[in-house]
Write a structure and sequence with these properties.
5-stranded parallel sheet; about 10% strand; about 775 residues; binds glutamine; binds zinc ion; single chain
Length: about 775
């Protein structure tokens, strides 16, 4: 019996030490020439292929590499460059890509273009989340007059590069229906244009690419169609039929692999299986429950690629569980027609465990990053073929067993406490009107109270001090003294300009999730476990591996210190359970909802400790609540149910006169506003200034019962809003939000801005609130 064929859909491109990020940023700063950046890219690709080949992967992908984003690359490949970039229609190379991603340079040199947010000629394309991952792609833009033409050679070049290394690589490209699905119509003359009408214009370019790749000798071409994991409308379904009918022919001697991932297929299953492709890839991790249905209906003339190794989490594969699935598949399709893979591209995994020198050995044994996943895929193929002495399987079993039994993971007290949680734990003692009165008496705030979202500028000085302290070059004591001084200055300044509800500034925090993860038991941190978030930005998500406990208060000292500096009510600052969950790698041995509720209990304890210490106002940020929404609408209710419950457990144990705030970094509320109202926070601050308050429309139909602070200062832009601009925004907001419920605050935290911007902006903000108060006083 032969070993079953192995492949992956994509490999992380950032490099083991984030080489790509570093080089790209140097290039942007003009410190290295383009050729140097390109050479680093080429070297990374080579190393990535060599690693895969050395691991024993039979079919390696190419064109999975990108200097920024693969969807942006596809847009350039198709010549789908929005007219504002004044592209000459020649080859859409690296600089065109960077302009689309980051905004065209300020060619006038007068500061009239701020690289994206100012609305001037070359503003950047929108970026949005890649399905339910924390990767972000550049959104393709479509207009009624959009046309496509082959405009780039990257995919061909990378195929040649691999060939020169002796590899017949599998070029990877987003499929046409997903490409259109992921894009947006940006056409002022015809905003309701149906983007799927572009399919007929797009397909010839795909046909061209496929036939060129075939002519170059590509044996396999992978088209990713993750749209299959979404709710598809009839139009999209028709597009699949039309597109693949044509593409299968155009591929000629090359064979097509169509890949779906990130979820079950359900009502799309039959359509997927009917595609005229030589091979179909299926995500057997997210879709584990559907594998039997898939196998039962799987056509007898196609290859089935099963992704049994999780491409987007960090746990070691359970070989027995994977083999059970693979055996069934083998029995159905035979070993000639079965391929083994990871569920999705490994883009969403950190690169390698080999660099991790500080990870606790017990926990490290439970993990697999991208390189370890390559080895797992190959090992599974050998095991399925009955090759080897079974030592690998035994070792894997032993490791799974150690993880299952570890008392690092299981804490009976935590599990018991969760079982004892009742509905009453998530309910405030009184309804909002009663609380509002009690809080207003206690806090004595004016109409239109001013506040901020939490962080103040993380200056180079703050970052340098933290880095020095982490290296051991600054003592704990000196670091604390430094942070206290920063906090003191920040609070004093807020008092000076008349902010009604100050914050401490979050100088001691590096990241709003990491800060809490580091202090909670049940989390661990890698040293190099970076994952691309967008462009050159990478994140290193905490690893939630066990039952969560809070060994000691996490923020009480900082907040009480800050409160001691001012008479104004200091707002304590916490990150909520849903956001911590959504921005971490989380355990796969219990439902996410259970991990979330454990986090909720730990943060609830912090909330109650803050209250006990005399803190009158506590903000619990849920920046990432919306991000956790399932891909299928039918699952939203379930998610929102436990997410909201978790927030309520965290927040609602306080007394009536303690004011709970929450903050969310978006304002697409229309579809989830009921759930947000159910959280029952006394005050919610949200992002709205960028949309000129239009996003407040949700509040016209739905009367949000509690207080709201729609952001009036766009912190994503270096521009300083004037008093009049902010007054206008507030005026607009007061059309939908009752005067007594309206707060005045920026869109989000100020940590990425400089003091020279923040100072005048907040002074103007306070002035805008004063003017509004004067108007209100004059009209009574
Ligand atoms: N309190 C955090 C801050 O101000 C909130 C950040 C966020 O919403 N992403 O930075
Ligand atoms: Zn925010």
């Amino acid at each position: 019996m032969s070993k079953i064929r192995t492949h992956i859909l994509g490999y992380p491109r950032i490099g083991e030490q984030r080489e790509l990020k570093k080089a790209t940023e140097l290039y942007w700063k003009g410190e290295i020439p383009r050729a140097a950046l390109e050479a680093i890219g080429k070297d990374l690709r080579k190393r990535n292929w060599q690693k895969q080949a050395a691991a024993g992967i039979d079919l390696v992908p190419c064109n999975d590499f990108s200097f920024y984003d693969q969807i942006l690359d596809a847009a350039c490949l198709f010549g789908n460059v929005p007219p504002r970039f004044k592209w000459d229609g020649g080859s859409a190379g690296l600089d065109t890509r960077f302009q689309m991603a980051r905004g065209a340079r300020d060619t006038k040199g007068d500061g009239s273009c701020c690289g994206g947010s100012c609305g001037s000629a070359g503003f950047a394309s929108e970026m949005t989340k890649w399905f339910d991952t924390n990767y972000h792609y550049i959104v393709p833009e479509f207009r009624t007059d959009t046309s496509f033409k082959l405009s780039d050679t990257k995919i061909i070049n990378e195929f040649h590069e691999a060939k020169a290394l002796g590899l017949n690589a599998k070029p990877v490209l987003i499929g046409p229906v997903s490409y259109l699905t992921l894009g947006k119509v940006q056409d002022p003359d015809n905003p309701d244009f149906d983007r799927f009408e572009l399919l007929d214009r797009l397909l010839p370019v795909y046909e061209d690419i496929l036939s060129r790749l075939a002519a170059e000798g590509a044996e396999w071409i992978q088209l990713d169609e993750p749209a299959f994991a979404l709710d598809l409308n009839p139009r999209q379904k028709e597009c699949f039929v039309e597109a693949y009918g044509r593409l299968a022919k155009a591929a000629g001697s090359a064979k097509l692999l169509v890949a779906t991932y990130f979820g079950e297929l359900r009502d799309n299953l039959a359509l997927f299986l009917s595609l005229p492709a030589a091979a179909l890839h299926y995500d057997a991790v997210r879709g584990a429950a559907e594998v039997d249905a898939l196998l039962a209906a799987f056509p007898t003339d196609k290859i089935l690629s099963l992704g049994v190794v999780d491409g987007r989490n960090i746990w070691k594969n359970d070989f027995d569980a994977s083999l059970a699935i693979l055996e069934k598949a083998k029995a159905r399709v035979g070993d000639e027609r079965l391929w083994i893979s990871a569920s999705s591209s490994l883009l969403h995994s950190p690169v390698t465990l080999a660099s991790e020198k500080k990870l606790d050995a017990e926990i490290k044994d439970w993990l697999a990053f991208a390189d370890e996943k390559l080895a797992e895929i190959v090992a599974l193929s050998h095991l399925l073929a009955g090759e080897g002495d079974g030592a690998g399987l035994e070792a894997n079993r032993a490791s799974q067993q150690r993880r299952r039994d570890s008392d690092r993971i299981h804490n009976p007290t935590v599990k018991g406490r969760l079982l004892g949680v009742t509905e009453a734990d998530g309910r405030r003692a009184s309804a909002f009107p009663v609380r509002q009165k009690a809080q207003s008496e206690k806090l004595g705030l004016p109409l239109f109270p001013t506040t901020t979202i939490g962080s103040f500028p993380q200056t180079a000085e703050v970052r340098a001090a933290r880095a020095k302290w982490k290296k051991g070059a600054l003592s704990d004591q000196d670091y604390e003294t430094f942070l206290k001084e920063e906090t003191r200055k920040c609070v004093a300044w807020q008092d000076e300009i008349g902010i009604d509800m100050p914050v401490h500034g979050e100088f001691e925090r590096n990241d709003m999730v990491e800060y809490f993860g580091e202090q909670l038991d049940g989390f661990t941190f890698s040293q190099f476990g970076w994952v691309q978030s967008y462009g050159s930005r990478c994140v290193k998500p905490p690893i939630l591996f066990g039952d969560i406990t809070r060994p000691h208060p996490m923020t009480v000292e900082w907040i009480t210190y800050a409160q001691s500096l001012t008479k104004q009510p200091m707002k304590g600052m916490l990150t909520g359970p849903v956001t911590i969950l959504n921005w971490s790698f989380v355990r796969d041995d219990q439902p996410r909802s259970v991990s979330c509720k454990q986090l909720a209990l730990a943060i609830r304890d912090e909330v109650l400790d803050l209250e006990r210490a005399g803190v009158r106002v506590i903000q619990i940020d849920e920046a990432a609540l919306r991000e956790g929404l399932p891909l299928r609408k039918s699952e939203w209710q379930e998610y929102l149910g436990w997410a909201v419950e978790s927030f309520r457990i965290t927040a609602n144990g306080v007394k009536d006169d303690t004011q709970i705030h929450t903050h969310m970094c978006y304002s697409e509320f229309n579809d989830i506003i009921g759930a947000i109202a159910d959280m029952d926070a006394d005050v919610i601050t949200i992002e709205t200034s960028r949309s000129n308050m239009e996003l407040l429309e949700a509040f016209v139909e739905f009367k949000y019962p509690n207080e709201i602070g729609p952001g009036v200062y766009d912190i994503h832009s270096p521009r300083i809003p004037s008093v009049e601009q902010m007054e206008n925004l507030l005026q607009k907001a007061s059309n939908v939000i009752p005067e007594g419920n309206l707060w005045v605050n920026p869109d989000c935290g100020l940590k990425t801005r400089g003091w020279e911007e923040v100072r005048p902006a907040l002074i103007n903000m306070v002035e805008a609130a004063r003017k509004l108060r004067a108007v209100a006083a004059a009209t009574v």
